[in-house]
Each structure stands twice: as C-alpha cells, then as structure tokens.
Amino acid sequence: MSFTPKISIITVVYNDAEGLETTLQSVANQRYKNIEYIVVDGASKDNTLEVIKKNESKISIWKSEPDKGIYDAMNKGLALATGDYVWFMNAGDIIYNNETLSDIFKTCEANADVYYGETQEINMEGEAIGLRRLKTPEQLNWLSFKRGMLVSHQSILIKKSLCKNYDTQYKISADIDWVIYALRKSKKIVNTKLILSKFEVGGMSRQNIKTGLQERFKIMVKNYGFFSTALNHIPIAFNFFSYLIKNKRF
Fold first, then answer.
1. Which of 108, 128, 180, 220 has its Cβ near the most Cβ atoms within 10 Å?
2. How far apart are CA 12 and CA 62, in angstroms?
3. In b/e form, how buried is each residue of 22-61, taking b as 16+ CB within 10 angstroms?
C-alpha cells in the first residue's frame, strides 16, 4: 500500500503578488494530490489579495489580516494546518518540479518524522546558479546545525505533531530554532537525496544579515552552549568568507 500522507503546504505573504503567483502555481502543478494549501497574507496593500481570490480554487484555506511579522504569520498558518506534515513555501519559493512530492513518497521510507533535501538557488531571472553554499548532510540530526543551517527551511517537511510555534522574539532566524526543536524530537529523519525547492537569492535574512547572524548565534548558544557555538563559528566564518570571495554570493 502506497504512503500518501496529507501535506499542509503553507505560504505566508506580504506585498508580493508576483512571488505568491509563482509559489502558488508550483503547488497547484504538483502531481501529488493529497495537499492542503494554506495562504496567510498580512493585509497586503498591493494586488496580493487579487491573486488569492483569482486562485481560490487552488487554495484550501486563506486569510488576510494584519500580523506582527513573518513568524506570527507562520504561526497562523500552523494553527490552520490539518495535514500529517507541514512544508513552508513562502511567497517566491518554488517547489523544484511537478513530481517532487510524488518522488518523495514513491522513493523514500514511509512514515518518517522528517524528510529533507537540497535547495536550488536561482537569480532574479529564474536561472539556476547552483545549490546552497552549505552542504546538506548525508544524515541530519539536531546536532548538525552546530555548523550552520545545513538544510534550508524550504527543503524540509516535518510531522505536524512535532512542530511548535515559532518564537516571535526572533525577527529573522526563528526558523533555525524551530527546525532544531523538531529534529531533537524526531526519531526517523530521511534524506530524500532530491532537490526539493528553488529560491531566489537575496531574501529577508540576507537583506538583514547583521540581525540574522546575531539571532543565529543566540539560538545556537541556547541549543548547544556558548563555548561549543563559539568554537564552531571559527570554521563557519572561514567557509563563509572563502565562498563569498570565490563565488561572489552567499
């Protein structure tokens, strides 16, 4: 018997009608059909609401109201989700191809707590420019993130029962804390060995890099302790700047 769990794909958006349209279509085009698609809009002032209403037949649940930031909106999405797994694909993120979800559950071990994979970076023209700088580990666990966020938020599916709310004290990096929490509770973590998502370089965390790095350090100290975090940041910093110099991107 095939394993076809219900997947709650959650998109949060604010003033990004074009990005929402792109993400929405990548969800709607999935061959896999057991999907609950949730869109949470922060009362956008552009034509985001028009895009939502135009595509209502492709959306399971949506709401549009003011929020207190991206993680508050993501918590609203979690509260609405009824699926076995949650997958955050925020406005502008793209599921890698139309077969991605089908391939996960056709080729991977059933009933894992977490499924993860690679992320393809693209430029503003939608052209592939390579995989993420941080290498996805062969086997992921909660200690893996000592070396940085080795799996992107867009390329990890987590059992809903293992998810907590995002900590809204963080404005840029709460996703790291959220994923570490779920990994600590997980017993079966499966590497799909697939590219799961595409995202355009230059997102919010990159536009606010100083705040993001400060939050990441604080989160890692919380989870791994100060001395371990400080020691691990030596190779993290070296690899970051080496990659930046060589590739002119991070």
1. 220
2. 10
3. bbbebbeebebeebbbbbbbbebeeebbebbeebeeebbe
